[in-house]
Amino acid sequence: MKLSGLQHYADEGRECINIHTGDQDVIVESQKCLCNLIFNSLDAQRFCSNRGCVEGIVQRLKTYGDPDLKYEIKFYDMRMLFLLTALPSCIETRPKIRYDLHGFTYLMEVLDLTLRSSEEEKIPLSDQDVDLCSEILKILFNLTVGIQKKSADEEEEAHFMRLVSILRDLLMCRTATKEKQEEIQSHTVNLLINIPVDFYEELLTPMNEPDVRAIESKDVEYDGKNMEAIIVLLLFLGKRLEVPSKSLKESLAPILHCLCEACRHNRSIRKFCRSKVLPPLRDDVRRLPEEGHSLRNRLCKLLTSPITEVKDLVAHFLFVLCKENVNRMVKYTGYGNCAGLLAQFGLLKLDSATLRGDYSSDSEDSNTDEYLELKDQINPITGHWEEPRPDPMEGMSEEQKEYEAEKLIVAMDKLQREGIIQPSRIGPDGQPVPVSHVLELIEDRDTTTTTTTTTASNPDSK
């Protein structure tokens, strides 16, 4: 710690730290050793947390504007601070850094300083700048994990307003390479998940005067606000959907969660995202919702993903874009694709729908002439237009129809007894209720209209 310049001590009541004593190359090598010790040793973790190492790093944060301070010293400071806020044995260091040492403020100032330097010199962020910012974003993520989503503290509100404003700039900043741009955007999205939802408004800025970027891209203006940051988030989602990933959950879950929360709690963001993700249906209604390359198509394809977390997040995102309206959700995705979500929320009965978000009362009717022309021929289960098919029961006598119905009941009963399917009816709460025998599905057909569902007990069955 002494060789790293992190020997924090008090001199006549003042906190002191010697960061310029000794060779900076020695400081860097000492920092590397400390990182390894902290990562591998529980004793080293506790020692560095309680013997001034954290205080020393936070004190040195104040000097990051010094051009003589090597980049490597800054980077390994942040790497150590990340470890000391991430490892389970050091969890008590988070509130100390955030509140007692005001590290939250100093970390934001470093991000702001890095961005302003890039803007003033009119150059993209270098790879080193991106790496440093990424480490800081990871630390800020650790410091904001588990925070209360609603905070009445004025100082906290000011911090979050400033932080989201900085995150907005990071989303739109230029970098030297595309790989680094995706990296900085990924860490920014991860941190946005922890931000209280009231502050998503800071991602938007009023469009009082047309600027150069607004002229180049007319789509950035919506509802009188600049939507550049939201466009970046949607483009980021599009890239993640295009590029196959070994871990679909880690790749898609953060951005889907971020967009879902932003749309649920901010009307302007929701309406803009809906215009991009669920535009009015035209000729695309002739295809299955999951066929194609648009955001809607690729998201609908994930509604039947075997990865539960991804499937649920996609369904929630699309449901929020539909203002949690069941009919609209079925219109854009098909009943078959969204049945799992509707069953989860107990919305299989349309009159049981309950809105959980703060939505406006306007209808936002987006039916196009093309859609209305084909509406009566759209299969609500698949969600696309189908050519009229001949009636398979045409020409049958009543006795033949009854015979075919009995064959169907026998087949369903056999599948149920073998544990392949579980017939259900929809209960008063909108949830599927299993029946003991398929004949129960038709017992009350004369007194009420009953919707039935069949659940596959064996996932491998067709």
Show the helix and strand layout:
Blueprint: E1 9-11, E2 14-16, H1 24-40, H2 42-50, H3 53-61, H4 71-86, H5 93-100, H6 103-121, H7 127-144, H8 154-172, H9 178-194, E3 205-206, H10 212-216, E4 221-222, E5 225-226, H11 228-242, H12 248-265, H13 267-277, H14 295-301, H15 308-321, H16 326-333, H17 335-345, H18 369-374, E6 378-379, E7 384-385, H19 398-417, E8 421-426, E9 432-434, E10 452-456
Antiparallel strand pairs: 1-2, 3-5, 4-5, 6-7, 8-9, 8-10
Helix pairs in contact: 1-2, 1-4, 4-7, 6-7, 6-8, 7-9, 8-9, 8-11, 9-12, 11-12, 12-13, 12-15, 16-17
Task: Describe it.
The protein is mainly alpha-helical and 462 residues long. It has three domains: 9-250, Alpha Horseshoe (Leucine-rich Repeat Variant); 277-385, no CATH class; 402-456, no CATH class. The chain is built from 19 helices and ten strands. The strands form four sheets. A three-stranded antiparallel beta sheet has the order 3-5-4, with no helix packed on it. Strand 1 (9-11) and strand 2 (14-16) form a beta hairpin. The radius of gyration is 29 Å and the shape is elongated. Residues 446-453 and 457-462 have low confidence and may be disordered.
Key words describing this protein structure:
three-stranded antiparallel β-sheet; 462 residues; 10 strands; Leucine-rich Repeat Variant; mainly alpha
In short:
The protein is mainly α and 462 residues long. The protein is 53% helix and 6% strand.
CATH class of the largest domain: Mainly Alpha
Which structural class fits the helix and strand makeup? Answer: mainly alpha
String of helices and strands: EEHHHHHHHHHEHEEHHHHHHHHEEHEEE
How far apart the termini lie comes to: 63 Å
The share of residues in helices is 40-55%
Low-confidence sequence ranges = 446-453, 457-462
Largest sheet, strands/sense/barrel = 3 strands, antiparallel
> How many runs of DSSP E, i.e. beta strands?
10
**Count of the separate structural domains:** 3
CATH architecture of the largest domain: Alpha Horseshoe
Strand order of the largest sheet: 3-5-4
CATH topology grouping of the largest domain: Leucine-rich Repeat Variant
Q: Helix count, per DSSP? A: 19
Q: Please compute the radius of gyration using only Cα atoms.
A: 29 Å
* Silhouette: elongated
Mind telling me the CATH superfamily name of the largest domain? Answer: Leucine-rich Repeat Variant
What would the average pLDDT be, to the nearest integer?
84
What is the percentage of strand-forming residues? 5-15%
